[in-house]
Amino acid sequence: MTKLKALMLLSILLISTGCVKREQAVPTNIPTKTPIYSPQEITVVPEYTPTQPTVVNRQPINNSPFYNIETPPQVIPSSYTIPRSRYLGGAYRNNYNLKKFINMMVSKYNYDRYTLNTIFSTVDRDTEALKKYNVFKKTKPKYSKTTLIGAWDKYRANFLTSSRINNGVAFWRENLSALNRAAQTYGVAPEYIIGIIGVETNFGSYTGKHSVMNALTTLALEFKKRSKFFKGELESYLLMIRDERLDPQEIKGSYAGAFGLAQFMPTAFRQHAVDFNNDGHINLFNKADAIGSIAKYFKERGKWNNRIPVAVKTQYNKRRFYGLTTGFKSNYTQRHLLSLGIRPVSNFFGYRGDVSLIKLSRYDRDELWWGTKNFYAITRYNPKDHYAMAVHQLAQAVKNAYYSRR
To answer: Nearest to residue 209, comparing CAs of 243, 161, 251, 176?
Structure first.
């Protein structure tokens, strides 16, 4: 027993002095963790440098012929990069027509399918836009108010106010250089560019709160009566955000999808918008770009002619007018209208060409105007007599106020 105790004490002494090392027990049968991705599957994305855009090579998603589409590399924009997703989410993730539309964008424009999946996954249904177009049929069809007694008095009260005229004068002074350059480049008088911005957005004070992406998608898929039109606008919008490198949900506009100070629809943007401040991007929320784009739109779409006037008020000896078709699409010789007792209050700047006959219903009488092809050009923006006349009269009111205060 004494010998056993001595041996134990000797062992403890040897271990404590380091002469003998205790071996660690190694457990057996421990399962090894399998990595989720193999090294070949891990994609290393290089850091973005402002001077050298990052290039992402698109690879086929799977072996399905539907996805195995060879496409060129896509340059990631410096301003905004849309993430890519193989899954389609959002309010219309199960919509057959949306999937068909995505296929079209991929095949027609070589649009990245994964990018489109991400874009449409952000979409919420815009029920307010559907209500505005009475898609739910919960309200009775509205009859035209333009023929009601006093319709023009009610309409003009919204636009020909002293505050809006004052805002127009301030806008002219602030943007004099861009307005003069637009007039020289496209031949459109500054006051009519101002008239459009004043009627559309009150000089930028209200440009709309709807997500343009949500509104266009909702109307394209649910407003069957005008589905073709809104699909075309949605198509143009997607091309616009790709070209201009924009966040698809960042742009806010009207329930119809118009946006910016100029309230262009996406197709009008792609056809007529211009980078008027030369910063490399077209931004219709920028005043210079909006000014140049409106002038260019008038020139290209409206065929604006800077050598002729827009409209002139006439005298007529009866309180109400009946008998002739009126509206911006009508066309008469001045001689014929003069024979009916409809005479302009001025010499109409020497203009002798054909005119349209515009009737504006006021509370006490019908007001008759002659309109030229430039009046018709304004209706290319919005095809309504009241709209074009509001632009014309606001333009003239701002012009008179601007020059009287200089």
So the answer is: 251
Provide the token pair at 385.
Answer: 């007599």
Spatial neighbors of 91 by CB under 8 A, at least 6 apart, are: 123, 124, 125
> CATH number, domain at 219?
1.10.8.350
For residue 246, the number of C-alpha atoms closer than 13 Å in the C-beta half-sphere is 18
130 and 226 in a single domain? The answer is yes
Angle in degrees, 0-180, between the axes of helices 113-121 and 96-109, rounded to the nearest 10: 140
**Residue 54: exposure state from Cβ atoms within 10 A (0-12, 13-18, ≥19):** middle
Residue tagged active-site, from 23, 41, 174, 200: 200
pLDDT for 89-128, tens place per residue?
Answer: 999 999 999 999 999 999 999 999 999 999 999 999 999 9
For residue 42, what pLDDT is reported? 30
pTM of the model: 0.78
3-state secondary structure of 44: coil
Q: Are residues 200 and 214 in the same domain?
A: no
23 tagged catalytic: no
Same structural domain, 117 and 139: yes
Q: Give the contacts of 30 (CB within 8 A, at least 6 positions apart).
A: none
